[in-house]
Design brief:
The structure is a single chain. By secondary structure, the protein is mainly α. It is 46% helix and 10% strand. A two-stranded antiparallel sheet has the order 1-2. Helix 1 packs across helix 3 and helix 2 crosses helix 3.
């Protein structure tokens, strides 16, 4: 299936044009993020039918991967130190809030009734 967002949306977020290997990696990140989102929501086979919040979530996840392809949590150089929050997923993983947002957009929240059968008959 096609990614739910395109490279142009990611480039707009990053504020720069992606080319060469970086563009190829961005396309893969968008595909991976779309797969993650679909696993928690609906298939959305036509990206044009996906809710805007779902597309935004795909771009968010892909942006995390493009900005930090190796998944570093922290780095230090001399007196300089940088650390990402521990709750942020690595790669194109999704936060719990993102998963909940996707499920709400897909209408997959609330109470559900599931029929259960045992020994050949309903319980």
């Amino acid at each position: 299936m096609m990614p739910l967002a395109d490279v142009a949306a990611l480039e707009a977020r990053l504020g720069r044009t992606l080319a060469g290997q970086e563009r190829t990696q961005a396309e893969a990140a968008l595909t991976d993020a779309s797969t993650q989102v679909r696993a928690h929501g609906l298939p959305w086979p036509d990206p044009a039918t996906a809710p805007a919040i779902v597309v935004t979530t795909v771009v968010d996840a892909a942006e995390r991967k493009v900005r930090n392809p190796d998944g570093y949590r922290s780095e230090t150089q001399g007196a300089y130190s940088y650390q990402l929050p521990g709750f942020l997923p690595a790669g194109t993983g999704l936060t719990e809030t993102e998963v909940q947002t996707i499920q709400r957009a897909a209408g997959l929240t609330g109470l559900f009734s599931v029929p259960v059968e045992s020994l050949g008959g309903p319980l």
